[in-house]
Amino acid sequence: MKHSTMRLSIETMNLDFVKKVEALSGSSVRRCFQCGKCSAGCPMRSFMEHPPNRIVRFLQLGQYERVLAGRSIWYCASCETCTTRCPNKVDLAAIMDALRKCSWDAKGPSKESYVQLANRLFIDNIRTYGRQYEMRLAAVFNVKSGQFLKDLMLGPKLITKGKLKVFHQKNKNLAEIEQIFKRIEELRKKGEAP
Amino acid sequence: MTPAKKLLSYSYYPGCSLHASAKEYDESTRGLFKALGIGLQEVPDWLCCGATPAHNVDELLSLSLCAKNLSLAEGVEGDLAVACAACFSRLKVTQHHLADNETKRKQVEYAIDGTVNLAKPVKHLLEILAKDFGLDRLTEAVQKPLAGLKVACYYGCLLTRPPEVPQLDCVEAPTIMERVIGAVGAETVGWSHRMECCGANFTLSRPGVVLKLSGSILDSAKAAGADCLMVACPLCHGNLDIRQKEIEEATGQRFGMPVFYMTQLLALAVGVAPGKLGFDSMIVNPLPLLREKQLL
Ligand code: SF4
Ligand code: SF4
């Protein structure tokens, strides 16, 4: 995959996809001149098959499939090092966010997108409780991802240290929080928000 | 006659972790501010800011959650004090972003059914201590100088990034943590991994990533001769403290490096009773080190 030939033609270039990523991220990919500074500082580089600068290059060439294939976008830690250092103000961290959204919308969950599963459970907690409920987050994640034994040893220790709460207090303004979620869904349905 | 000292008072957004896994950060923040005579009043019914997961999944949601918090904070007087590096970054990013994006601001205002408060200054505790309160006054307040304690100040990702937003200090070579802890007498070490990512929220989904990245951070701090790490982010704390034993098992190295929240060390120095600083809820026991340095 990494060294396979890339054919560039009208058929393989999906520029609509690139436009969507640019709109979602509010960042242009055309500014990039491939200096590689983003990748040089990326702490997750060794976990990715395509370093951040290559992702931008693929986008410039409209290589939608190549960008979404593999695990690079799911291994970005949102540390913002790339965005901070880019000499051309390419907001690569925001582009990574946009790519994750596109991939999830197009392909749904996958083994590589485990991290997004954790993210979604985190958001479910906000909708249900208004705040994070760390114990539930860890428990549900482990069940849903099939990693039943993971962190089993860590849990009891954290509970005795008072770090994980078994019971949870709910916010008083849950109805207002629910309304935020509903209104965003409504905006999207009407096509008034990306 | 000395000029009258301005009375400082802040509204306070603790964020979810400070009410749970990072309760020692909350306790020590309150203790420190009380000792320094700085007012701190919690924003009622604040909600989760969404941290990294929210913008990973849905940017509009992330902006809306933060905007809702900013509007709740309007009800409490004073600039908004934030302890968690991630909450701080998200709240600032939201203000910054909505200030120059009218379309997004309208969407967010519809979602929260109210106006967005772009004017209230959002400040990290470091900024309040270094700039508003002042390093000289901090030094004056010291009762137990942290002399001889070699601290590696760990910034992590979000205290200073993205570059245009927090404006806390220089993005590539900040010194604000060193200056603040130096003001109470601690020694700071120069080291390579001050701003390297700890693995962040991969801690839940891919702990292997955390073991590797946080392992290098601990390794670098140890090599620089640090006795302990000092952090300002509950997630970094979790990765470096809670997972330290696992990291030791995975790498075969022994670190035994206590990881303090910045306010725990500062509060200790200004005379807050050690029993109120949550040292017992840290996984890597800091008591032997503090005793050895005669700080307990
Ligand atoms: S740092 Fe910016 S210009 Fe350089 S390769 Fe990365 S995105 Fe392109
Ligand atoms: S934000 Fe993501 S892509 Fe950018 S440097 Fe950090 S981990 Fe790498």
UniProtKB/TrEMBL annotation, chain A:
A molecular-function term among this protein's GO annotations? oxidoreductase activity
Domain 4Fe-4S ferredoxin-type positions: 22-52
- InterPro entries in alphabetical order: 4Fe4S_Fe-S-bd, 4Fe4S_Fe_S_CS, HdrC_iron-sulfur_subunit, Helical_ferredxn
Database matches in Pfam families: Fer4_8
For this record, an example GO cellular component is: plasma membrane
Q: Which UniProt keywords apply?
A: 4Fe-4S, Iron, Iron-sulfur, Metal-binding, Oxidoreductase
Tell me which PROSITE patterns the record gives: 4FE4S_FER_1, 4FE4S_FER_2
Q: What is this protein called?
A: Heterodisulfide oxidoreductase, iron-sulfur cluster-binding subunit C
Source organism (scientific name): Geobacter metallireducens (strain ATCC 53774 / DSM 7210 / GS-15)
Which gene name does the record give? hdrC
Automatic annotation (TrEMBL), chain B:
Organism of origin is Geobacter metallireducens (strain ATCC 53774 / DSM 7210 / GS-15)
Enumerate the transmembrane spans: none
Question: What name appears for this protein in its UniProt entry?
Answer: Heterodisulfide oxidoreductase, CCG domain pair-containing subunit B
InterPro entries in alphabetical order: Cys_rich_dom, HdrB/HdrD_reductase
- State the UniProt keywords alphabetically: Oxidoreductase
Q: Which domain of life is it from?
A: Bacteria
Q: Name one GO molecular function term.
A: oxidoreductase activity
Q: Where is the Cysteine-rich domain?
A: 11-91, 151-241
